[in-house]
Specification:
The complex is a heterodimer of chains A (about 120) and B (about 260). Chain A is α+β, with helices and mostly antiparallel strands and about 120 residues long. In chain A, about 30% of the residues lie in helices and about 30% in strands. In chain A, the strands form two sheets. A three-stranded mixed β-sheet of chain A has the order 2-1-6. A three-stranded antiparallel β-sheet of chain A has the order 4-3-5, with no helix packed on it. In chain A, helix 1 packs across helix 2. The longest helix of chain A has 17 residues. The radius of gyration of chain A is 18 Å and the shape is elongated. With about 260 residues, chain B is an alpha/beta fold. Chain B has two domains: about 40 residues, no CATH class; about 210 residues, 3-Layer(aba) Sandwich (Rossmann fold), CATH 3.40.50.300. The chains are: A alpha+beta (about 120), B alpha/beta (about 260).
Chain lengths: ~120, ~260
Amino acid sequence: MHELSLCQAICESVARYADGREVRRVDVRVGYLRQVVPESLHMAWELLTEHTNLGGAELVIEHVPAVVLCSACGAETTLDWPVLMCGACERTEVGLRSGEELDIVSIDVAAPDQAERVR
Amino acid sequence: MGRFHRHPDGTEHDHDHDHDHEHRHDVGDHRGYEETGTARVAVLESILAENDRVAAANRADLEGHAVRAVNVMSSPGAGKTALLKRTLGALGTELRLGVVEGDIATSLDADELAGLGAAISLVNTSAGFGGECHLDAVMVRAGLGRLSLADLDLVLIENVGNLVCPAEFAVGEHARAMVYAVTEGEEKPLKYPVMFRAADVVVVNKVDLLPHLDVDLDRFLANLRAVNPGARVIEASARTGHGVDEWCDWLRAVAAG
């Protein structure tokens, strides 16, 4: 359900940026801490874009690992579960470097001159 | 993936397609096909950017009337409505309260809170895909529009019962409260870290049931600290009223801005 809502937001943003142009690919960046299930996001994308202007466009998901920087020992840890803890000294005074991303990075659209030719 | 194009005779194909269908290739203008194609447009915008813009507008409207808002979230059945009912009773005489009540289809929760002095605005979320699982900024905007903000001090936004989706959608609130029932088990913060990380305060509800349960509250608190070290914890029972004073103190502080 979560992915469906997020996907709805993606479709709205993409349509705005595409501004009528044919969209072929959408690149999004999703941090580990967002709890987004990629399969569900892909499924939502298929469901929401089918029979729309975005139909056939590819959704590409880049996964960003959750990385914390320890303010005590300075070590960087890539988390493999959502507990914010330094992997070196096990303290919890850590700052989040990445992992909360939820961004549309870019969209690939048909180049205007080609669009002219195709139609 | 091949580049889709359409010929004037109506056939369509990608350019790396198998030629197992019949169409003429001398129709349509293929000049420059190789050097044109796809243009990449940088977006670099949060997926939730539009929601966040509306949330900011909600917040500006609230602040324009010196109103503060709290987003109250929990799983279904954790006791949000029961806690809010207590809250309206306890704070209703000193603060002018409004409630935005998010519910998928019914007015049962809103009915439960009616007649306690607060202005209630019901937002049914069933317009979405079979019922949205959360309130987003646009829905809350509609809900706030039905309240007279000039006559309020504090708006309590009762989100849809769900431990995943509501945490992602800011609605213009000044603080986020989460109601967790001890019957939910100790591991919930690790299973739903987005929600538990989002909370400014976690009301640990139904503590009156602890003697009857095997649940280890210390282990829950350790798990909560692991995902959200800064959250304030208030042990409460909406049934007995235990902890409601502390919760109301927290709300008073939010309302005072």
